[in-house]
Amino acid sequence: MDMGYDFTIRRLTYPKKIASKGALPLRFWFVNRGSAPCYLDYSLRLRLEMEGEQQEFVLNIDKGAWKVGDITHNEILSLPILSLGEYGLSVGIFFADESPMELDIQLEEKDGYYRLGTVEVCKDTAVDLAHAWDDFYPDGYYPLEDPQLPD
């Protein structure tokens, strides 16, 4: 029997440039393809890493809403002072005993974190990212299928 949870990340949206000591808005679309929610205690974490320097963040998820099917999570992180440059952005789910949850993702994995892309920390950004969602509905629109590329 194939019972239990099976998390995958369908999409993560975030800005390509952020400011040191600024904000990082994140929009996740997860899917639990399993037959049940995860009943163990776990946390969603984000890691920014550049040349040995790394910052880890525990995100504020509502585990009660992480059932079977589509799961969305939107959060704006307040960033500490970061060195300028390009950081690798990785995400992982970890159990209370610090062991990583294996996600249904075919991406590079290191220490339980899956590398999803890069973000550049620059002197400042043209937009106030701490208020990125003030003017529209933060849950956004998550289509059931990925959009097709234009012809």
Secondary-structure blueprint of this entry?
Layout (H helix, E strand, L loop, with lengths): L6 E7 L3 E3 L3 E10 L9 E9 L2 E6 L10 E10 L6 E11 L13 E2 L2 E10 L29
Parallel strand pairs: 2-9
Antiparallel strand pairs: 1-3, 3-6, 4-5, 4-7, 7-9, 8-9
Quick structural gist:
The chain has 151 residues and is mainly beta.
N/C terminus separation: 43 Å
Overall helicity: under 10%
So what's the overall shape?
globular
Based on secondary structure, the structural category is: mainly beta
Q: Can you walk through the features of this model?
A:
The chain is mainly β and 151 residues long. 0% of the residues lie in helices and 45% in strands. It has no helices and nine strands. Strands 2, 4, 5, 7, 8 and 9 form a six-stranded mixed β-sheet that branches. It has a three-stranded antiparallel β-sheet with strand order 1-3-6, with no helix packed on it. It is globular and about 50 Å long. The termini are far apart. The model has no long low-confidence stretch (mean pLDDT 86).
